[in-house]
Design goal:
single chain, mainly alpha, 16 helices
Length: 322
């Protein structure tokens, strides 16, 4: 008799009769058998092939541990949080304190991904917080010039009388070098924060038309503003860096040349206006300025919107005074 049959035979209307009592005893005996069977180790687990089954419970416990965040990952998140907090405090009065704290933050890790986090966050700060654009870039410059910082992220070693280096947790190695000093110089050039920041600018420069397309689809004014800052901000930064002598004239000429292709006429003129009105134009040779002027004069200003017309007049006036 199965448990199901026992339960179906039980008479609720006369639960105290002798038949019901017998059924209860049968049920208890059946249930004990089920409990005993549940506690038995399956026969197939005694073979070597299925021996892994025996340790499944232990393995499960181990796997649960794998879901926990590793200690070094928590440390990176802590450092990232501190960097974000320090950049959010930007103010003339606390600039030096922020600089000192950022140095500590960047020295707390030897994971190069911190550089990417810092530079991308810094870029956002520069484009959205115009009041302190130059302060943020000053921070970058001072940190970039801290040579001791880079040694924290690499391993320099001697092999067969030659020196090599690699980024920690990265197998790619650089070298050989005749001495350790040459290896350190290369490390500083390769990991230089100013140079790495230029890579961020290059990436954003290439995405400018994507931001414009996305902006034109937005209806919310705040969303439009954020996207506009993204495509305009990179040119404001380039102008500041050029005036700081952090980028050379050749790069600025390339940037201006790309804008003069006018793939998106009005937006390119707006960005060209930002560059030309904010750089020390006299640093560019006269023949190159004349070349820029000749290309710009091909624009049919009469077909432009009113705002862009005025920007175009500013650019034309600048070239007239060459």
């Amino acid at each position: 008799m199965s448990i199901k049959t026992v339960l179906e035979s039980f008479k609720m209307e006369d639960y105290n009769n002798i038949e019901n009592i017998n059924l209860i005893n049968i049920f208890i005996e059946k249930y004990k058998i089920i409990e005993e069977e549940d506690n038995k180790v399956p026969i197939f687990t005694s073979t070597h092939k299925y021996s892994v089954y025996k340790s499944r419970k232990k393995e499960y416990k181990k796997k649960k541990v794998l879901w926990k965040k590793l200690e070094h990952e928590n440390n990176i998140q802590k450092i990232e949080s501190n960097i974000r907090s320090n950049l959010n405090k930007m103010n003339d009065d606390v600039y030096n304190d922020i600089l000192d704290d950022l140095k500590k933050n960047l020295f707390e890790s030897n994971n190069i991904c911190i550089f990417d986090f810092f530079l991308n966050l810094l870029y956002d700060k520069v484009i959205y917080d115009k009041k302190f654009q130059r302060k943020y870039l000053d921070l970058l410059d001072e940190l970039s010039n801290n040579n001791m910082l880079y040694n924290n992220y690499v391993k320099i070693y001697n092999e067969d009388g030659k020196y090599y280096w690699n980024i920690i947790n990265n197998e790619k190695r650089y070298g050989p070098y005749e001495n350790k000093k040459d290896a350190k110089i290369t490390v500083r050039n390769k990991l230089n924060l100013n140079k790495l920041f230029l890579n961020v600018l290059k990436k954003e420069f290439k995405k400018r038309y994507d931001y414009i397309d996305e902006m034109e689809k937005k209806e919310d004014d705040d969303d439009k503003y954020k996207l506009k800052r993204k495509y305009i901000g990179v040119f404001e930064i380039l102008a500041i860096l050029y005036n700081y002598n952090k980028i050379n004239t050749d790069l600025i000429i390339v940037v201006i040349g790309r804008l003069l292709e006018f793939n998106n006429l009005e937006y390119d003129i707006e960005c060209l206006h930002i560059i030309t009105q904010n750089i020390s134009i006299n640093k560019i040779s006269k023949d190159k300025l004349m070349n820029i002027k000749n290309k710009f004069e091909k624009v049919k200003i009469s077909k432009l919107s009113s705002r862009i017309k005025y920007l175009s007049y500013d650019i034309s006036d600048l070239f007239e005074n060459i």
